[in-house]
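Input structure tokens:
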């Protein structure tokens, strides 16, 4: 197991946590870390008990302040061209993934968070893609995901200047799902995870897939995909269970 992270499982709740680093550290990623982290996320996504995955930091200083760029000097162009693959793991697994971000969050680790379904950030968070200041560009999906999240103008602003934004700006731009005071980050993440864990797992998986695929698909194709998924969910036991609960509550309320 990587020295960068540890995994905590709460199988009764259906929630797993990947906890980066230790208190007081900047949690710098080594190249091996990104692949071990990607494998860990993929492995958790294959677990039937898992309903929600949280990626958070043990350090108040940083989610992660970046990667060890010195390692790039010994990498081939081909290996560098594939660096985006492990950090896309949160997008590939079917369960919802929440990134809890405070402190520094730059470069590859920020790109990892952009592959998550939810980003809850503290007001004190600092996020950015500083690669251009090293004569590089975002290479792990950050530019393309930002483009789809915030549009061309703001994506160019962050990627081409390397500037950093705070949590409130990230929320205003649509990068963050929610911005909270630092002392409220843990409770906000736990509240969202508990809410998601109580919802229909097949429905959440279908929604995630439909939106991720639909973001790049023509509208007609996306509508067809959504329609077929909608019809498929109608055949699941979870649909019958959730519908019956809703009917029972409505009947009790009347």
């Amino acid at each position: 197991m990587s020295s960068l992270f540890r995994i905590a499982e709460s199988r009764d709740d259906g929630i797993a946590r990947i906890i980066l680093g230790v208190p007081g550290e900047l949690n710098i990623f080594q190249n091996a870390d990104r692949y071990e982290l990607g494998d860990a996320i993929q492995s958790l996504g294959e677990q039937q008990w898992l309903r929600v995955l949280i990626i958070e930091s043990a350090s108040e200083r940083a989610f992660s302040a970046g990667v060890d760029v010195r390692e790039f000097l010994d990498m081939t162009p081909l290996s560098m061209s594939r660096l985006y693959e492990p950090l896309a793991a949160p997008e590939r697994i079917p369960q919802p993934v929440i990134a809890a971000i405070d402190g520094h969050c730059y470069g590859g680790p920020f790109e990892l968070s952009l592959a998550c379904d939810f980003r809850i950030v503290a007001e004190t968070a600092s996020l950015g893609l500083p690669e251009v200041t090293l004569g590089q560009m975002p290479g792990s999906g950050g530019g393309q995901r930002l483009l789809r999240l915030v549009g061309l103008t703001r994506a160019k602003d962050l990627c081409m200047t390397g500037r950093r934004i705070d949590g409130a700006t990230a929320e205003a731009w649509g990068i963050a799902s929610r911005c909270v005071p630092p002392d409220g980050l843990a409770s906000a993440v736990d509240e969202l995870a508990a809410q998601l864990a109580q919802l229909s797992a097949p429905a959440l998986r279908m929604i995630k897939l439909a939106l991720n695929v639909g973001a790049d698909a023509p509208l007609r194709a996306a509508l067809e995909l959504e329609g077929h998924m909608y019809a498929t969910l109608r055949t699941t036991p979870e649909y019958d269970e959730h519908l019956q609960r809703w009917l029972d509550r409505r009947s009790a309320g009347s």
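The longest strand covers residues 5-10. Residues 143 and 159 are 7 Å apart (CA to CA).
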